[in-house]
Amino acid sequence: MPVPIAETLVATWLLSEAGLEPPLGRSSIFIEGWQRGVPFGDSADYVVRVRGRSLSLHRGPVAGTRATVGADPLAASDGLTGAAIATGEMRHDIALPLAALTRSAQICGALEAALTLTIGFAEQRIQFGRALSKFQAIQHLLSEMGAEVAAAGAALDAAIRTLQAGAPLDRQAVAVAKIRAGLAAGIVGEHAHQIHGAIGYTEEYALARLTRRLWQWREDFGGESYWANELGRAALCDQTPLWPKLTAGSA
Fold it and tell me: What would the CATH number be for the domain defined by 95-247?
């Protein structure tokens, strides 16, 4: 749904980390240096602005809305002109990794929805006297989509298990989740549109709404390149193998 549910959850977490009482209503976030605008700023009751570990709470809505690749509204950050109604300092620099992990979760949800939609279409669409799902080439695409969805979900679950309130986020786990979700978004989106054909691009059909957001979310708060570099730097500084750490306790 085109509403700031994820942004409100992130804003609430950040305010709590800074010792501030989260306000009632819809909230959005603006992390300086990482966003071109305020998601759903035109309908947000409040906006949390973040710079490093410092944050400020502003009243919404924010003027200057424009469309994005994902088709969700994005308000210009210049619209945050009013004085802050509250300020605070977080104990840890968690805004970027928390926002990136949240986008990873949204990507995984959209991937699952796109896979379900594509499987249903392939089973119902008749071509050359039989359903598309009966063709081996289509089966191969669907199986690859399923594998990508499962891999992205596993990386996300591993990262979520590292979350602890009041503690810094495990940036390596977040990096793996964001990278894997972004890679899956490219493959699943491509295969889904290949199977659907022209109907997948129409505004009336749900697939385009999902894949347009996939293109947007994979770039939000650092794309695969940024988090791959982050993961590489961490690996060079820390010789502890990442995979055992992510899978510890999963059994």
Answer: 1.20.140.10
